[in-house]
Structure formats: structure tokens, C-alpha cells
């Protein structure tokens, strides 16, 4: 099972969806989904003395121009374990430029957290909460000498439009002739378009190894 492809986030109410958390609130380890295996990979330890201000993950069955699923920050009082499925209600979006590429972050609340589940739009959050989110993403790569710029915060309707665009782009990318293509095959194809030669080789090797692995026989 690959949580990016095999979890349907659209089975909830019209204003909620399922997301998968990679990094718990308060964490300093940058976990991310390995798109070929569906397992969690430790990408790096944050260089700066900061921690994630919310549970951070992705929305399954979405796709963005950076070849990743759509990112989501889920506000709540408590951290959750990595790879936890959370029911979230999108309330806004933080539009960000990371290394000259658009990198939108959907802002949501945990539907089952009584301290937050009354919120319907990002405009209802304290300004300080938005300042914390902005400052974290502006600072967390500073010691890596990488530039991140926060463009603006937008409300719920804009967030929902971005999510719908992510669903549509996923369907266009992973379905051909009405049938879903093998995600591993897509990973091999995507690897050839990766700008970094080293990253391209590593992605291709992982995808090829996954394709060549013998299938487990059912007993």
C-alpha cells in the first residue's frame, strides 16, 4: 500500500478530507514520503533551532507542479505519530516560494480537536498564529543558505480551489485511458525529468529496484 495513491481523501464531508501526517507538531526531523516505496524517509535534521508549529503532511491523490502531493499543515493542540491519517478541515492557504518554485501550504484544523473545530476560515485565527507559521518557514532553511519567501495568506475558498486543482492534476497524471498507471512506472518517468543528475540517478535506481523485486506469494 502506498498512502499517496491508495488513500481516498474525498470520502469525508464536503468541507473535510483525510490527510497523512509525515512530521508531528514540535518535530525537528524532516520526514517525507518515499514516493516509490510508500515508506517514510528521514530527509534531514533541521539546521535551525526551530520546530514544526503544526502537524505537517500531504493530501493523498493530489499532485503539484513540483511533482509532489499537496502539502498541508494541520493545526491542533497535540502532536500525532508520523503516517497517521487525520481528518482535517481546510481553512486557508499560505502561498510560498521555495527556491524560486511555488510551494503552497494548505492550512487546516483537526476536525476532532474541540479547541479548533469551530474554525471555518483562516481569518478567524489569531494574527500571532499566522506570524508563527510564516516565521518558521522563513527561518527553517536559513542556515542551509536556501531562500524561502512567503507571498501571502489566503482564505478557505482559495484553499479549496488549490486542492481541487491538485486532485485534477493527479487524475491527469496517474490515469491513462481511464486506468491508473503503476506509480513506480511514473516514478521512473519522473526521474528522467529531475533537474539534478544525482537526484535523477538515485530516483531511477530506487524505482528500478522496486520493479525488479520479486512479488510476495500469498499463502
Automatic annotation (TrEMBL):
GO molecular function, one term: inorganic diphosphate phosphatase activity
Enzyme Commission number(s): 3.6.1.1
PROSITE patterns: PPASE
GO cellular component, one term: cytoplasm
Annotated residues for binding of Mg(2+) 2: 71
Record bears the keyword Transmembrane helix: no
Keyword match Signal: no
InterPro entries xref list: Pyrophosphatase, Pyrophosphatase_sf
Cell compartment(s), UniProt: Cytoplasm
GO terms under biological process: phosphate-containing compound metabolic process
Binding residue positions for substrate: 30, 44, 56, 140
Keywords, alphabetical: Cytoplasm, Hydrolase, Magnesium, Metal-binding
Cofactor(s) required, per the database record: Mg(2+)
Stored CDD domains: pyrophosphatase (cd00412)
Enzyme class of the recorded protein, top EC level: hydrolase
Residues the record lists as binding Mg(2+) 1: 66, 71, 103
Catalytic reaction list: diphosphate + H2O = 2 phosphate + H(+)
Superkingdom as given in the UniProt entry: Bacteria
UniProt-listed HAMAP family: Inorganic_PPase (MF_00209)
Subunit and partners: Homohexamer.
Family the UniProt entry places it in: Belongs to the PPase family.
Function: Catalyzes the hydrolysis of inorganic pyrophosphate (PPi) forming two phosphate ions.
Name recorded for this polypeptide: Inorganic pyrophosphatase
Gene: ppa
